[in-house]
Write a structure and sequence with these properties.
- By secondary structure, the chain is α/β, with parallel strands linked by helices.
- The protein contains 11 helices and 6 strands.
- It has helices at about 1-10, 20-50, 55-80, 95-125, 130-160, 160-190, 195-225, 230-240, 275-295, 310-325, 360-375, and strands at about 245-255, 260-270, 295-305, 330-340, 345-350, 375-385.
- The strands form 2 sheets. The chain has a 3-stranded mixed sheet, covered by helices on one side.
- Helix 3 (about 55-80) packs antiparallel against helix 4 (about 95-125), helix 4 runs parallel beside helix 6 and helix 8 runs antiparallel to helix 9.
- The two termini are about 40 Å apart.
Length: about 400
């Protein structure tokens, strides 16, 4: 069914890196969500009126808010698909994250309202009527919501969408919520247990938990989370496949929304190589990264001495000392100048953010270790931190 809908309504649906295709995925998800949630909400509201159940009626309004959330998702994807302009030169891709956040906030608000209604029912209990029609409506809505969960989860994984993942989580929470409501209705009829209000509290707690988790998933990329490790590894491997490049460091990935990713890095090349020819190689690598990963890549060349055995030995020596401070420290941009009274060792250290020492303490300790190793050593150290952990 999902494949049929994609083939029918999403042109070129397999090209998921294309922003236009992502927009069509979002439109399909939003349209399906609006239609099905409106139908479910109408059915549950009818069941709530028949049974006089606050839990059933609250669940109906929950689905009505889901329809509004689907509308937000649809509009969000349409806005995110807009081309870059003078005010937003990196595009509008982050609107998709904002759409996911809006869905999450809607879920949280529904959870609060459900809790208020449920507590009121606990304090002022009312009789709940049982109807086979109402039970059937609730059972059918569970099946529909379960399909919507699978549908949105499938789409979110295909295009790596936080907004659709939030929608899928909401559908799953609805399955659990409605199941609890149905069990409460059955318990009240067959076991004469008045638990409608208590069921409403459980439903509200689950809905609130789902909304909170979905909010965290959408806030994280807005604040600037680490990039996908697979993307980082792929970029490094692609660059290092070229023999002209001896090393890679200072890789930074900037996420301006799905389909709008920029990456910058430093590529170490031999200082003795033809710079014009090496520059052509770097240009080709940038184009290769763009084609392979749909990113805009900028590469800075770092000429280093690769055939000087003494420089290489000193570099390895400093790396050995640095890893006495923290075994995950890396070193790059190593240079050495010999003088009559001392030897300048100039390099950058990339220190993990979890290292307990401050930048100044790392710098001082490295200088001390170098002097202990050889009193002629004078270190000039730049401390960096990784952006792709």
């Amino acid at each position: 069914m999902i494949e049929f809908l994609l083939r029918k309504f999403v042109k070129d649906y397999q090209n998921v890196k294309d922003p236009a295709v992502r927009e069509r995925y979002g439109t399909l998800s939003g349209a399906v969500g609006i239609f099905l949630n409106l139908m479910i909400s109408l059915g549950k509201f009818t069941a709530g009126v028949i049974t006089s159940s606050v839990a059933v009626t609250a669940d109906a309004f929950n689905n009505l808010s889901d329809a509004a959330s689907s509308l937000v998702t649809l509009v969000g994807f349409r806005l995110a698909g807009q081309k870059a302009d003078d005010d937003h030169p990196f595009g509008h891709g982050r609107i998709e994250y904002l759409a996911g956040l809006a869905v999450s906030v809607a879920i949280l608000l529904v959870g609060v309202e459900l809790a208020k209604s449920a507590v009121g029912k606990i304090l002022h209990p009312e009789a709940v009527s049982f109807s086979p029609l109402s039970a059937g409506i609730l059972a059918a809505s569970i099946l529909v919501k379960l399909w919507m969960y699978v549908f949105n989860r499938t789409l979110s994984r295909r295009i790596e969408s936080a907004a659709m993942a939030a929608t899928a989580a909401d559908s799953l929470s609805d399955c659990v919520a409605t199941s609890a409501v149905l069990l409460g209705l059955l318990a009240g009829h067959f076991a004469d247990l008045s638990i409608d209000g208590w069921v409403g509290v459980v439903v509200a707690a689950f809905v609130f938990k789902t909304g909170w988790e979905a909010a965290k998933d959408t806030i994280s990329p807005l604040l600037g989370q680490p990039p996908d490790p697979a993307l980082v590894s792929g970029i490094r491997e692609t660059v290092l496949e070229h023999p002209e490049v001896r090393g890679v460091h200072d890789l930074i990935v900037h996420d301006y929304g799905p389909g709008h990713i920029m990456a910058s890095l430093h590529a170490e090349v031999s200082i003795d190589a033809d710079m014009a020819a090496t520059h052509d190689v770097i240009d080709n690598i940038e184009r290769e990264l763009g084609s392979k990963y749909h990113i805009m890549a900028t590469i800075h060349m770092d000429p280093i001495a690769t055939d000087d055995s003494l420089v290489n030995a000193r570099r390895d020596e400093m790396l050995e000392l640095a890893r006495q401070i923290d075994p995950e420290i890396t070193l790059h941009d190593f240079r050495m100048t010999e003088g009559p009274t001392h030897t300048n060792l100039i390099f950058d250290l990339v220190v993990p953010r979890k290292c307990p020492m401050s930048d100044g303490e790392v710098r001082q300790e490295m200088a001390r270790l170098a002097r202990v190793r050889n009193s002629r050593y004078l270190t000039v150290i730049q401390i960096d931190h990784p952006y792709t952990e």
